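Exercise 7. Predict the joint structure of the components listed below.
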Amino acid sequence: MNGLDERITRAGADVHRLTRDLPARPAGELHRRLRRRRRLAGAAVVVVGVALIGGTALLFTGDTLQSPAGVAPPAPAAATGSSPAPVGVDDLPVLGIDREGWSLVNADQTGCDTLPSRTVEYRGSELFALLQIVGVPAGSDCEQQLWWMSETNYETVQVRGHDARLLPDSPGFVVAWRESDEAVVTLVVQPAGSGATLTRGTALSVAESVTELDPTVWEEVVDGYRSGRTPTTRVPSDS
Amino acid sequence: MTVDEDAPPQRVAHPGSFEAFYARERSKVVGLAYVLSGSRLGAEDLAQDAFLAALGHWDRISVYDDPGAWVRRVVANRAVSRFRRAAAEARALLRLGSERRILGEIPTESAAVWDAVRRLPRRQAQAVALRYLEGWPVADVAQILGCSENTIKTHLRRARRTLARRLGEEDLP
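Solution:
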């Protein structure tokens, strides 16, 4: 065995020791996630089916041609926030990243296991950012647990006028802050190129660039993405 | 007494069950996710996502010669994907109501080795992790990554040359 083999063997043994000590995570958790995912998929099929049937019915009855002039059509769901829940997905702020050269590559509204959330991924020429907004009521137990980062190597910073925590995690940074009484925002910033480095200043600069998107833009970009009409690039599936 | 309708029925895991498979493979797959992603924060979630995918297709995957190879292929691809890795990190960050889970640290010298591995081209890094972390034979590495054995041998040879240079070690043939 030469020097390289010895070093790799030692490095492998260290990883095995690390993961062997990891507390057991029950398989039941995976069963629950799978059931939830299938329920969501089933609900989505029902919604699309109802929409198709409704749309077809409207076409046949001609209702779409009989709207009185000057009456605006119903606002899209994302803009109206009609959910009766205290903190529903539609109640969450709609955020984007206001930097030239970014393109949206993915969007998801069911990214968090139990809480309403929006997840948006952006790719720039040199950086990648994953923005997640989660509905967490202020002062709740959930909020306290969200700040588990307090026991790790974090740095307290200010982002958009809010107290935030900056968590360096090679090769990028995670920035988390509370944007409103209902929403906590996390932003993962990573360099786009392999082996590239990222400074904390750049990560904070991206976090400062998070801005509210006009609901119309959100509709066009996010819903367009879902229906395959967006001009942005979709990340190819790699599994 | 409350009943969790989502909870799976309690049962003893038999050797061919998903539960037994998960218990047997979990820590090794987390290790693979860690060395390829470099993320102590997101490694476990990357592994969980791969196991979740396996559970969703368990009827089909369970009859494979080695379901573990399928899971490793998924995790090897996802761990080197910047997007998947970041998503796993964000989920780990946002996991609420559960205990904190972040992998500990490995010695600096070992961390440097895996850091050098991650800076290799994607396929080379995957081949090195499967071959040297997990000890899979070249033929199995080729099957997991969907390449020929000769391709894997070439990846490993080039990877070793690069690693030896970067780590200041001599790599004897």
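Discussion. Chain B touches chain A through 71 residues (CB under 8 Å).
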